[in-house]
Amino acid sequence: MANSFDSALVADTISSMAKTVLANRLAPLRLFTSDFSDEVRKPNDTIRVPIVSATASTSVNPTNFEPGSSTTVGKATVTFDHLFQPFGLSVSDVANGHRLERLVQINLDALADKIWSVAITPITTVNFGPAVVTTTTITPGSGHLATLWSNVSKAGRKGLVVTPTIYSGLIPTSTLSLPLSEGAYGFENGVYYASSFSGAVSGLDGFACSQDAVCVASALPAIDPSIRQQFAISETVTLEQLGISVAYNVWGSTSNRQVNASLEVMFGSAAGLTSGTMALII
């Protein structure tokens, strides 16, 4: 197996590409309340993600200056699933000069799609009510952006994520147009697109939301030390922009001499506050 791939090159390729590919494709996760860590978790482990839902009213000329327990902190229970993206090269692939690092991007794309699919699973009409916009013809002057914004107007930090088709209609067409950065169209957390909304309510084309509408969490998978020592590479890359840590492993099969690899993460999602926090496009 030592002659089948350059371990240092593969490790550098996976690490550098993960930081670029996953960070870009998973950028909409910034719209949610998150608890991303490099702790080790097992499938069906749970974590309680805090949600600050209310606080005391502002006092005028107070006589008591102790705050007490005036802030309401709720919690959403998120259950972890082990997301495992495998890939590899057969002995004939290796003999024909194929390289493992050429397979990295497509598999990072697949893992990103699965993470996003799990993240938006709680987005249903049962949790957040019917769609407030029922067309994909959304342009800056259509009024639909105002409808979406007004339905989550009480949220402190609002964001919007839509399909590439809708997003393309919002892209600036001149230097005088509004750039799609934080604050665009009144969405403080920015405007994003996602390649797919599979996993959420059927027909979903996007949504405006408050950060506390959905809670997501990630961790690293538990791998027994006796198994880990058999890997040629077993490392972790952390996406600095998001805080998600992803494990990657490379190993060789002694039976068929295939070079195997995997990208892995523990990930879960749950509905947070569901009243006035989400406006759906269906």
Could you walk me through the main structural features you see in this protein, from its secondary elements to its overall organization?
The protein is an alpha+beta fold and 282 residues long. 22% of the residues lie in helices and 31% in strands. The protein has helices at residues 7-25, 91-95, 104-119, 125-128, 144-151, 164-168, 225-228, and strands at residues 33-41, 46-54, 72-79, 81-89, 158-162, 191-193, 206-210, 214-221, 233-238, 245-252, 259-271, 278-281. Strands 1, 4, 8, 9, 10 and 11 form a six-stranded mixed beta sheet that branches. Strands 6-5-7-12 form a four-stranded mixed beta sheet. A hairpin with a 6-residue loop joins strand 9 (233-238) and strand 10 (245-252). Helix 1 packs parallel to helix 3 (104-119). It is globular, with a radius of gyration of 22 Å. The mean pLDDT is 89.
